[in-house]
Amino acid sequence: MKYLSLLLLIFTYFTVKGQEGSFTINAEITGFPDDTKFHLSSLGKTNDSYIGTMKDGKLTIKGEVLEPSSYRLQAENGPYVSLWIEKGTWKVKGDSSSFDKLIVENSEINKLNREISDQLSPLWDKHSMLYEKIEAEGDKEKKKILINKLSQFGDSIDRVRVINIFSLEPSYPLMQEVYFLRNTLSKDSLKLAYDRFPETIQNGSMGNFIKDFLKTTLLKTGDIAPNIEGKTVDGKLVKLSDLRGKMVLLDFWAAWCGPCRLSNKQLITLYNEYKDKGFEIYSFSIDTNFNAWTKASQEDQITWTNVSDQQGMYSPEAIKYRIQAIPRAYLLDKDGKILEIFRGYSEDNHELIENHLKGL
Q1: Cβ density class 133-163: b for 16+ within 10 Å, e for less
Q2: What is the residue-wise DSSP string for 125-181?
Q3: What are the CA-CA distances from residue 245 to residues 167, 223, 242, 342 (Å)?
Q4: CA gyration radius for the chain?
Q5: How far apart are CA 100 and CA 79, in angstroms?
Q6: 19 Cβ contact list (under 8 Å, min separation 6)
Q7: Helices then strands (H, E): number in the chain?
Q8: From CA 61, how far away is CA 253, in angstroms rounded?
Q9: Which residue, 320, 74, 319, is CA-closest to 205?
Q10: How far apart are CA 298 and CA 315, in angstroms?
């Protein structure tokens, strides 16, 4: 049995290792002037970023990948498109007027991704139009009706995506769909979806994420908050459990999250009023960029416990709380029991927190 386990471990290592390597993108894109800069940025676990410059309608970008991964290619101050990059040399063709339709020649992974996006794009366009109607609607009752329609339409999109997960050919882009719907699928359905994929994909970053996610449970009020840890901007390791004995607001946020930043600013008054009475905030940033995190922390005047592991949504600490959207916050009592769970931002959240703090 030990021998078999060792063989499986060796097989997994070389299977994943075999996907590492260098890539070269040779693009011919019409409609952009010479010297236009293009940024290729990872949308996955890594924080890789590359820059190329257009010359005579041609662009070359080179880099390294650990596995087939989703990237965003964006013209400076211009349009962008999502592409899947894997090791090898790839020819990309297109025009500035239809930049989101760039073609990666002879790329099976991008062909599969295009099939998914072409099916979902019209649905997301309708979803966006409905959202814009909600934003423009001034009548509260009409807005409620539109919000309900938006929710129902969102559910219908999810149903299409779930059908895809269980019917389309397993691929990295399809595993990304599983990743996106991890909180929508039941645990049994998520396990069935995960089991459809070959080991090469299961052992990739998203596959490993789902594997770890399946070990978690959905938290509810009354549960003891799982212990997590992270380092402050100064490099000091702080565990959530270090704050036992205090009422704690565990807050997941990021520099790029507008509602999170607004919440940070409004927490200052609350923190200053109750910090000497047994209240502490434990902010866990899911930023992957250290400089962006520290800059936002300074701008928001965060003086409470503020940590990160810079692994983004792939953070094993964030996985424990099934974080998929932020802001997300948990109010904990002195023993670490969850008193309240806050999904999204609302001024009412702070009022509810203060109602608990008045008893300190």
Answers
A1: eeeeeeeeeeeeebeeeeeeebeeeeeebbe
A2: HHHHHHHHHHHH---HHHHHHHHHHHHHHHHHHHHHHHHHHHHSPP-HHHHHHHHHT
A3: 50, 17, 9, 22
A4: 23
A5: 8
A6: 65, 66, 67, 68, 86, 87, 200, 204
A7: 11, 15
A8: 32
A9: 319
A10: 23
- Return the C-alpha torsion angle 90, 91, 97, 100, nearest 10: -20
Tokens read off for 109: 């992974």
Average pLDDT over the chain reads 90
Per-residue pLDDT of 249-305, as tens digits, reads 999 999 999 999 999 999 999 999 999 999 999 999 999 889 999 999 999 999 999
Token pair belonging to 166: 């269980």
Q: Write out pLDDT tens, residues 118-168.
A: 999 999 999 889 888 888 888 888 888 988 888 898 899 999 999 999 999
b/e for 50-82, b at 16 or more Cβ within 10 A?
A: bebebeeeebebebebbbbbbbebbbeeeeebb
Name which of 40-49, 54-63, 138-147 the model is least confident about: 40-49
Cα gap 244→178, rounded to integer Å = 36
Using the predicted structure, report yes or no on whether residue 5 has a pLDDT greater than 50.
no
Q: Beta-carbon neighbour count of residue 106 at 10 Å?
A: 10
Complete edge-to-edge strand list for the sheet that includes strand 229-231: 237-239, 229-231, 305-308, 279-285, 247-253, 328-332, 338-343
Task: Please say whether the beta carbons of 247 and 278 come within 8 A.
Answer: yes
Residue 14 CB-density burial (10 A; 0-12 exposed, 13-18 middle, 19+ buried): exposed
d(CA 343, CA 206): 24
| CA 241 distance to own-chain centroid | 25
Closest CA to 357 of 250, 270, 244, 240: 270
Does this model's pTM top 0.70?
yes
Do 84 and 172 meet the contact criterion of CB atoms below 8 Å apart? yes
Identity of the residue numbered 315: S
Cα dihedral sign, 210-215-217-223: negative
